């Protein structure tokens, strides 16, 4: 049985992503498009469009065009969409990188994508220089000024921007990284059509008025930040207030001072808004709506936010490979539901044992089909074939059901990813690090519930020689990005495994729940 939501299908324009986004600039050239949280730097829509075109012209003059890759390694800053869309307008592909990733992770991503140019911020130039020494990156470009890097302003050139021949359905404009259902991070290939469909779906299910202000905290290197927060807001003519890093008091102060109307949050921030006494110190009366994503939002937390702030609060569901698949912002919505499918999206639920298609209120794996679904994984045809069916349905690795109203309820994750504050953490990767410790003979990692972070990684280890939990956690912390750190360790006599050697994570989850 194939499920579709109540929303009518919409036309996905056959055009390039940047021309689709910047159409707002022609209508509202004097409206503020981006501004940093301090109110010091930013662009009107007219300035944004001009900067994108001039930077694209400068990139073209450097020989950058179709088939080339530009890497973006930066926190959320007003110039981020300029660099992103300049590369896209020049016909290139943009790989967005997480500044918190390790040098080894960044090097691998740059080499896998074949990036030629890297754009960053002054504080990351030293790291970028060290990383690019092991890659084919030809030039480091920096927002502002920094020794050893080309100023982004030097890219801005007069003249007509390039007009490369782009096939929206085939040409890749964005590479994001995801662990998929298991394993190490893989490059997710998103075409111009994928990106257009994603932002169009967001604008239809969680619309913004043209005069609204969005606080851009979800990082632009993450699908939630790049697609929903940055590009969907620009498509609708809203103002983006960028925050390079999250700090509770600075966050609340920004809402008050910029009269923010829309928040995109991960559940961690929703808990702050629902429960923190800090909230009472600030005037948040400008808020109209909140959209939560990145991980499951507790219904009780959502209700507390709704009552305390007097706003509508909705929850979206998607994944890097297919964002904004389900969304419900308007009240009422059933507690725990992520809403019905977004426009142009089909869903089916498969029995995880037999593969049989299931009906209403039957739990199984969630599969999704639509124009927003990725083209595939970078340099990974076998992994692509495992998740993408020939008919276009994507295996999400999530367990859930659709009720009689067409709303999706997620029950569990078949896939093994841990969601720490909206960031994806692979247990397989952490297990490999644990196993490299000289005193660890076997290891397994699961995600355990945490009110603040949604989930935290917990390691179960079998040791040969005495070692403390603190020593093991410090060992892992030295080798992974901060958000991937193991937060708890439990010593165990034997890791439960299947006859073919796979870790029985459900046994460990059951052990965690019962305390035995």
Give the arrangement of secondary structure elements:
Blueprint: E1 2-4, H1 17-21, H2 23-27, E2 32-36, E3 42-44, H3 45-61, E4 69-73, H4 80-89, E5 93-97, H5 103-113, E6 117-120, H6 125-132, E7 139-142, E8 150-151, E9 172-178, E10 186-191, H7 192-205, E11 213-216, H8 223-235, E12 239-242, H9 248-258, E13 262-265, H10 267-275, E14 289-292, H11 299-309, E15 312-319, E16 322-328, E17 346-350, E18 364-369, E19 376-377, H12 381-387, E20 394-402, E21 408-413, E22 418-420, E23 423-425, H13 427-435, E24 440-450, E25 454-463, H14 469-477, E26 488-491, H15 505-514
Parallel strand pairs: 2-12, 4-5, 4-6, 5-9, 6-7, 7-8, 11-12, 11-13, 13-14, 14-15, 25-26
Antiparallel strand pairs: 1-17, 2-3, 9-10, 10-19, 15-16, 17-18, 18-20, 20-21, 22-23, 24-25
Helix pairs in contact: 3-4, 5-6, 7-8, 10-11
Explain what the structure shows.
- By secondary structure, the chain is of the alpha/beta class.
- Among the domains are: 44-165, Rossmann fold, CATH 3.40.50.980; 418-514, ANL, C-terminal domain (GMP Synthetase, Chain A, domain 3, 2-Layer Sandwich).
- The chain is 29% helix and 26% strand.
- Strand 15 (312-319) and strand 16 form a beta hairpin.
- Helix 5 (103-113) packs across helix 6 and helix 10 crosses helix 11.
- The mean pLDDT is 92.
Key descriptive features of the protein:
516 residues, alpha/beta, Rossmann fold, 8-stranded mixed sheet, 15 helices, 29% helix
Q: Write down the overall mean pLDDT.
A: 92
Q: Which stretches of 5+ consecutive residues score pLDDT under 50?
A: none
Second rung of CATH, namely the architecture of the domain at 44-165: 3-Layer(aba) Sandwich
The gross shape turns out to be: globular
CATH class of the domain at 44-165: Alpha Beta
Question: Cα distance, first to last residue?
Answer: 40 Å
| Total helical segments | 15
The quaternary state of the protein chains shown equals single chain
Give a count of the beta strands, DSSP E runs of length 2 or more.
Answer: 26
SS content category: alpha/beta
- Binned, the helix content reads 25-40%
What is the name of the CATH topology of the domain at 44-165? Rossmann fold
Percentage of β-strand residues: 25-35%
Biggest sheet: strands, sense, closure?
8 strands, mixed
Major sheet strand order: 3-2-12-11-13-14-15-16
Gyration radius from CA atoms, angstroms: 23 Å
